[in-house]
Design brief:
Length: 135
């Protein structure tokens, strides 16, 4: 289900420069699903990954507690969230299950805690003004 949603999102990827199409789907604690795809730009540094688009899509729709993320990449690449996306995901859920898929049949499961151990968050360290950024 989540995998199909991520594959569906991949079909909307805008990736004319790298040719690497990526889709993501996030499942929240209420069972809602939010999709994202990578969106590239001729000013390359403005490119955004599918995972972050998925997170931001969820946030703007009022959801920020997630159970699982599926990321799917086209072709024979190893799918896994980049470092920037791991940090953005850690803002909202340390316990996140992550399903990594490519369109040639590769499938693997991990967790955000495994991918980004000892993540920096203000909530965890008790620092900063905003003691509970998830609220
Ligand atoms: N990309 C993602 O969408 N997610 C990742 O986790 C890694 C990379 C995209 C960004 C860019 O459009 C293309 O893949 C090549 O880096």
């Amino acid at each position: 289900m989540l995998i199909n949603n991520a594959k569906d999102a991949l079909t909307n990827a805008y990736a004319p420069y790298s040719g690497i199409r990526v889709g993501a789907a996030l499942l929240d604690e209420q069972g809602r699903i939010f999709k994202g795809c990578n969106i590239e730009n001729s000013s390359f540094g403005l490119t955004i990954c599918a995972e972050r688009v998925g997170v931001f899509n969820a946030i703007v729709n009022g959801s920020k507690r997630f159970k699982a993320l599926c990321v799917v990449v086209e072709g024979n690449l190893k799918p896994t969230p980049c470092g920037a996306c791991r940090q953005v995901l850690a803002e909202f859920s340390q316990e996140l299950e992550i399903i990594e898929v490519n369109t040639l049949g590769y499938e693997s499961e991990t967790t955000l805690g495994e991918l980004l151990p000892d993540a920096f968050t203000l909530e965890q360290k008790g620092g900063g003004q905003n003691k509970n950024p998830q609220k």
